[in-house]
Specification:
mainly alpha
């Protein structure tokens, strides 16, 4: 008899947890964590490419130093942020991380645009290979971010809707910060670059 009651209680508890969204919270939380890990992996891949790109560009005479400096500084700022599991749950820390990565995206976009005015770089196979790798990584970043945005959105809906919001409050499942629409638009649009000043040195004429 006791075994029967224990079994019945376990079944009732499982049904209650399922109805309140507990299992769904576990599934979506794992989905968010996996998405975040992929975003970080692609950002790290990009950061690892930059030293080789900078080294190659430095070999080009009279390359815009300001553009190169911005890339170096933006990478240093982005990689200086300590990435911990808590970062993805802290709105302010997440905002700073997001801003740093956005700044690096803009700096790299400008560097690639400026490089178009340097024939030697355009003809440099090593630089072009790095450029292809970088552009491919940027595409993977976009895909990873979009998947993460979707995963977080699903999780956040669960934390707000009834009756799963009761489970969220009871178990301290808070709303997770997400990448903003404004930031997505900024990353998608490359900054405008003026080529009013000739990039090639006068001696090359």
């Amino acid at each position: 008899m006791h075994r029967f009651f224990r079994t019945a209680l376990a079944i009732m508890l499982a049904a209650t947890l399922s109805a309140c969204g507990y299992n769904e919270f576990q599934r979506l939380d794992e989905q968010v964590n996996a998405g975040w890990a992929e975003v970080l992996s692609q950002y790290q891949r990009r950061a690892d490419l930059i030293p080789n790109i900078v080294s190659t560009v430095k070999g080009e005479a009279n390359f815009e130093q300001e553009t190169l400096t911005r890339v170096i500084e933006a990478r240093a700022k982005a990689t200086s942020i300590q990435v911990t599991p808590e970062l993805a749950r802290d709105p302010e820390a997440f905002k700073q991380f997001q801003a740093a990565q956005s700044q690096l995206s803009g700096a790299l976009s400008r560097l690639l645009m400026v490089s178009e005015s340097y024939p030697n770089l355009k003809a440099n196979q090593g630089f072009q290979d790095l450029r292809v790798q970088l552009e491919g990584t940027e595409n993977r970043i976009t895909v990873a971010r979009n998947r993460y945005i979707k995963a977080v959105a699903e999780y956040n809906v669960l934390t707000r809707q009834f009756p799963s919001n009761l489970t969220a409050m009871a178990l301290s499942y808070g709303v997770k910060p997400n990448f903003t629409v404004q930031n997505e638009a900024a990353i998608s649009n490359a900054p405008a670059v003026s080529f009013d000043k000739p990039a090639a040195p006068a001696a090359s004429r």
